[in-house]
Amino acid sequence: MSAMTTAHAPAEQLHPLFAGELTGTDLRALDDAALDGVRALMDRYAVLVIRNQEITDEAQAAFARRLGGQLVTTVGLRVINPAARSADPALTDISNLDENGEIMDLADRRRMYALGNRLWHSDSSFQNPPARYSMLSAKEVPATGGETEYADMRAAYDAFPDALKAQIEDLRAFHSIIYSRSTIGFTEFSEAERAKFPGAEQPLVRVHPGSHRKSVYVASHAEHIVGWPVPDGRLLLRELLALATLPQFVYRHTWRAGDFVIWDNRCTMHRGLAFDEANQRRDLRRVTTIDVD
Ligand code: OGA
Ligand code: MN
Fold first, then answer.
1. Per-residue pLDDT at 38 exceeds 50
2. CA–CA separation, 145 vs 26, rounded Å?
3. 156-188 confidence digits (pLDDT tens)
4. Cα of 113 from ligand 1 centre, angstroms
């Protein structure tokens, strides 16, 4: 295995198919070889959990830049949420807190928009290029609920019947965040917001470069199959999403404050689970890298 696993600590597998935990590591203090080790672990596990990380927003962004280069900026999201709590546009505020650090009103429009994270998705699949790595740093977590689930889209693809693999091999899907939000009834996008999110076409099957494994690439953002009648495409996409998120392909992460979780959006989907948002605080920060070399 990698230098990382021998020099630092092994990754323990958290699920029979994917997801590892790396122990004995301070993400702020990794040299280049150790960083290569993290990339190798990511290629294998696709989701990596590192506990007890005291990391500032700045250090998180710096780590992401070293791990994966260019960062997704939340310029689009700032239109939705101008009162974001971080000055750095690379930081996405994944919390139920307002600009004063208080629990948001349940009817707050920012919360309504963020509820889309409860749907299975791959980050930025509605943009081109989409996301490669995302990483969440947990500051405050609810006593119960608010877990994040991850689905292994390589293992799901492997289990597809051959006929399905052949059917989807060369297909492309159109992804749109306006669409995915509309499926839960959030349709109040302004013209300016719509202009920020034109959507993007993506292949339905991708080869994951680091593992050379094929992965289905689907998400709640996937609106239709390019060149197909919309209902046919939507039915196929629903079927693929259901198959990719069968319980045997899902790892559920229960958060503790100090957790740092990195995932590979090229071959996993994720979704947040509900919690008592009126009374419990949940404060996580996300940084995402763009899938370019
Ligand atoms: C995200 C996301 C889910 C959650 O940060 O990209 O989808 O559990 N989060 O908060
Ligand atoms: Mn997400």
1. yes
2. 27
3. 999 999 999 999 999 999 999 999 999 999 998
4. 12
